[in-house]
Amino acid sequence: MSFSGKVVVVTGAAGGIGKETVKAFVEQEAKVVLVDLEQDTLESTAKDLNLIEGEYLLVAADVTKEADVEGYVTKTKETFGRIDVFFNNAGIEGKIVPLTDYPSDVFESVLNVNVMGVFYGLKHVLRVMSDQKSGSVINTSSISGLNGIAGVSAYIASKHAVNGLTKTAALEMAPYGVRVNNINPSTVDTRIMRTFESAAAPDDVAAAREAFTQAIPLARYGKPEDIANLVLFLASDKSSFITGTDHRIDGGQLAG
Ligand code: NAD
């Protein structure tokens, strides 16, 4: 699955899933654009991954600010001339409290990152891809976009919105040969899960981890590389007849 000559933009690139996906694309010879909040975490990510000068671009940007999003799209075009793959992945989890106690400002901030950030990314990247008449977008939703979970109202609402944006964008972009899909992971071993574990059992995080593991038929957390493998498939021509679809990657969690 070579991505030689392809330009791949990843948001949330300094995080658990984003970084592993950048690594996987680089192994397949893609040029990569890493987008995340802080320049220093981007630089340490590039160093960890031994990225090669001229083959990558780092852009510190807040995906909730449309001007920042226009900025990373413009810089990518100026540097590499095109965008072949867009992994629209930055996200936050918010609080884990009942809806009736949910702080409204936190609810709004979750929607800002997880919905407005995804929307701005789609709006500006799809302009480039529709002009090119090619491209593949992968939005990071969650199994939280496919069901309800008590205590997680903002995150659930935001990920359901991502699924809807994906389907709409897929329909609008199909005439241009541009594909748009969702991935819907469950429990992946990254920083976000530390928040869920601490909220579930503040005094016994190991017990929370065990309980989350038992909810997964394959009896393990997902690894960031599991997610990267699916993203690469959806980015590649091997998935050329797949668009507008949710792709559950959850060790069987929602199969029952
Ligand atoms: P993570 O916290 O390790 O990574 C998220 C990254 O997004 C961080 O590097 C963070 O700095 C960046 N980010 C947050 N707000 C941003 C903003 N406003 N602008 C730019 N960047 C911003 O967590 P992760 O697990 O790698 O999460 C990646 C995606 O996967 C998220 O959308 C998350 O909702 C989704 N997801 C994660 C899990 C899981 O169990 N870890 C499950 C389902 C879905």
From TrEMBL:
Alphabetically ordered keywords of this record: NAD, Oxidoreductase
Highest taxon listed in the record's lineage: Bacteria
Keyword Oxidoreductase: yes
GO molecular function, one term: oxidoreductase activity
Keyword Oxidoreductase: yes
SMART domains found in the cross-reference section: PKS_KR
GO BP: bile acid metabolic process
CDD domains, per database record: SDR_c
Boundaries of every Ketoreductase domain copy: 6-186
UniProt cross-references to SUPFAM superfamilies, sorted A to Z: NAD(P)-binding Rossmann-fold domains
One Pfam family recorded for the sequence: adh_short_C2
Protein family: Belongs to the short-chain dehydrogenases/reductases (SDR) family.
Protein name as annotated: SDR family oxidoreductase
